[in-house]
């Protein structure tokens, strides 16, 4: 048998990397958000960074802009001050059940918390499915390589409204 055949028979299971953590296999398929433990909750975030875009609210509708919070690193979509973000940025929102169910909706439609709360499965590019954090970048659904700017450079937010399909 060729070496490649042997490799193919040992199919990689992304979920195997969680076996020593407090995480049930494919928890997002059988648990509601309310039932997830802290580790599962954190793993559900795909790391897209789109919740850190500034938005405008007008007549009950949310308009996303391409201006991100000044503390977001758009190269890796990570918050530079994650541990103390709520002390530093007064309008930084915790992603909890209230935030997820708030109307008008201010999270992007690809947000894993929204998808699961609405009874959907995760998309094929989600890191929990692929086993790779970078798959959210490769799929083009994060802020990485998008025409975004820091809020610190914005003069008028209305000039920065975007209607990207995945918002
Ligand atoms: S939009 Fe949702 S999935 Fe994306 S980074 Fe924010 S909380 Fe995580
Ligand atoms: S402070 Fe909040 S809004 Fe700003 S980058 Fe961090 S998590 Fe995002």
Overview of the molecule:
The protein has one domain. It starts with a helix and ends in a 17-residue tail after the last strand. By secondary structure, it is an alpha+beta fold. It is built from eight helices and five strands, in the order αααββββαααααβ. One iron/sulfur cluster binds at residues 52, 69, 71-72, 79, 81, 85, 89, 92.
SSE diagram, text form:
Blueprint lengths: L2 H7 L17 H4 L7 H7 L8 E6 L2 E8 L3 E2 L4 E2 L5 H4 L8 H5 L10 H6 L9 H4 L4 H4 L10 E2 L17
Parallel strand pairs: 2-5
Antiparallel strand pairs: 1-2, 3-4
Flag low-confidence runs: 1-9
Mind describing the biggest β-sheet?
3 strands, mixed
Helix/strand structural class: alpha+beta
**Distance N terminus to C terminus?**
48 Å
Which oligomerization state do the chains in this entry correspond to? single chain
Q: Total number of β-strand segments?
A: 5
Bound molecules: iron/sulfur cluster
Strand order of the largest sheet: 1-2-5
* Number of helical segments with 4 or more residues: 8
**Beta-strand level of the residues, as a percent range?**
5-15%
Question: What does the overall shape look like?
Answer: globular
| Cα-based radius of gyration, to the nearest Å | 18 Å
Helix content: 10-25%
Mean pLDDT: 91
Number of domains: 1
């Amino acid at each position: 048998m060729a070496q490649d055949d042997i490799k193919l028979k040992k199919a990689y299971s992304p979920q195997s990397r969680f076996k020593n953590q407090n995480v049930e296999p494919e928890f997002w398929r059988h648990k509601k958000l309310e039932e997830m433990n802290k580790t599962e909750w954190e793993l559900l975030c795909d790391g897209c960074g789109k919740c850190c875009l500034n938005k405008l609210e007008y007549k009950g509708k949310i308009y996303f802009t391409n201006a991100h919070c000044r503390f977001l690193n758009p190269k890796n979509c990570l918050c530079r001050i994650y541990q103390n973000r709520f002390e530093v940025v007064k309008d930084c929102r915790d992603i909890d059940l209230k935030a997820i169910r708030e109307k008008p909706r201010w999270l992007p439609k690809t947000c894993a918390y929204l998808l699961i709360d609405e009874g959907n499965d995760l998309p094929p590019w989600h890191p929990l499915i692929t086993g790779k954090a970078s798959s959210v970048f490769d799929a083009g659904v994060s802020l990485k390589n998008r025409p975004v700017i820091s809020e610190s450079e914005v003069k008028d937010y209305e000039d920065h409204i975007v209607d990207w399909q995945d918002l």
